[in-house]
Amino acid sequence: xxxxxxxxxxxxxxxxxxxxxxxxxxxxxxxxxxxxxxxxxxxxxxxxxxxxxxxxxxxxxxxxxxxxxxxxxxxxxxxxxxxxxxxxxxxxxxxxxxxxxxxxxxxxxxxxxxxxxx
Amino acid sequence: xxxxxxxxxxxxxxxxxxxxxxxxxxxxxxxxxxxxxxxxxxxxxxxxxxxxxxxxxxxxxxxxxxxxxxxxxxxxxxxxxxxxxxxxxxxxxxxxxxxxxxxxxxxxxxxx
Lengths: 118, 112
Known about the structure:
The complex is a heterodimer. In chain A, strands 2, 5, 6, 10, 11 and 12 form a 6-stranded mixed β-sheet that branches. Chain A has no helices and 12 strands. In chain A, a hairpin with a 2-residue loop joins strand 7 (about 60) and strand 8. By secondary structure, chain A is mostly beta strands. Helix content of chain A is about 0%, strand content about 50%. Chain A is globular and about 45 Å long. In chain B, strands 2, 4, 5, 6, 9, 10 and 11 form a 7-stranded mixed β-sheet that branches. By secondary structure, chain B is mostly beta strands. Chain B is built from no helices and 11 strands. The mean pLDDT of chain B is about 95. Chain B has strands spanning about 5, 10-15, 20-25, 30-40, 40-50, 55, 65-70, 75-80, 85-95, 100-105, 105-110.
């Protein structure tokens, strides 16, 4: 079974509209972290936002917010007021278990290709 | 510049050959991770080292190996290369907090 599922292979959105990118995850570990990364056409992986499993509030970073619904195992990324520069691949990822020198590699979803149209 | 340095940026080699990819982690980070990104498999975790010791193995082939040196830089060795090994190989580093993962710009490997 996939641990990270991103159901939207591609999305077209008008500039200045808000965008929600879906991500569901599967883990039995009570301690985990959820991440969103942006990969523009140049190829680098850019960290956007992080949500810990014990965090009480949804994470926000500028125009990015994470809609964390723990019971539904959902961690959707919301981009407000989209811009042309937001066009890129977006990946949801999960770290299972506690860190601190332990095994904590990330498991990635297959990504969503977001295209912002003027 | 993310602080994680990967060399070379591009590599073209023939089937059956062996290559070494190099990664210098961000200053102070003890963990190094290797990932492979291909069209077929997406982004896959290969292996993790923490302060010189192997911590976790993901979907790493037996033809691939890695190590982390005392100065914390890491090398990923790929041998008996096949066409299907063509991919973008990322190195990431982390201080071990489980929160801050910084990716390098990747090495694009093309096997012909």
